[in-house]
Amino acid sequence: MDTTGQTGTTGRPDTTSPAPRSLTFYEAVGGEPTFRRLVARFYDGVAADPALRALYPDQDLAPAAERLTLFLMQYWGGPHTYNETRGHPRLRMRHAPFAVTPDMRDRWLRHMRDAVDDLGLDDPYATMLWDYLVAAAHSLVNTLEERPYDQSL
Ligand code: HEM
Known about the structure:
Layout (H helix, E strand, L loop, with lengths): L24 H4 L3 H16 L2 H4 L8 H14 L5 H6 L4 H5 L6 H18 L5 H15 L14
This protein binds protoporphyrin IX containing FE.
The site of protoporphyrin IX containing FE (HEM) has 21 residues, from α4, α6, α7 and α8.
């Protein structure tokens, strides 16, 4: 078996050959079904949160759920279907049309916390996933103004 020079999903050369490469985070937590469960549970929370739900333009949340699922699968070492279908994530840019206030971030994170807890992952996976989501959500806040479009104020 010649694995010399091959790169794994980390993009780094496999220098540990012939020992088996270590699992990606994606594989270690159960692959696609785990990410589907996470996002489905998260969107149950979004659907029941009128303030947050109002940000989502589509009547049907399923397409948004699919995009987030594919993004997270890709981020954690799974297939690159997100990039193939949507292009580079550029999440700051893609969130620019929405008023991501600290309150929206906290709502988003509350539903994600429930969803992560529901997965019942062992540590370090649960903590890694949660820490990433917290950092990513903080990085996407794009206004401190709760009603940025009300020009009369
Ligand atoms: C901070 C709170 C956040 C709010 C209020 C928010 C809100 C939204 C909204 C309204 C959309 C459009 C729905 C759609 O896909 O059609 C969206 C898209 C998306 N969000 Fe967020 N988001 C937040 C945080 C995050 C975080 C932390 C991530 C990643 C870890 C993320 C990943 C995505 C992705 C991948 C899309 C789809 C982009 C595309 O391909 O068009 N979001 N978000």
